[in-house]
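Record minuted for completeness.

…
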Amino acid sequence: MTTRMKQSSYWELIEYLAALATPEQILAFQLSPERQDYLQDLMERNNEGELSSQELLELEDFVEFNQQVMILKARAAAALNPVS
């Protein structure tokens, strides 16, 4: 999938979730503790230069995913506190 197509797909997901979930539900979203632990391990091993090429791709995908979640949460927070 091209980067442009991936970004477009992410925006569609953000719009969909923003329309269906309440801002509170969006802000409450967290990865499972197991997934958080695994990603922490990847980040630590990346700092040590110990990731395989597959693990590096997985970490890069997570960084991209995390950026999209942050955008979604920012939109949710803005919906709860509209500028007057």
Notes: The chain has one domain: 3-79. The mean pLDDT is 86. The chain has four helices and no strands. The CA atoms of residues 33 and 59 lie 17 Å apart.
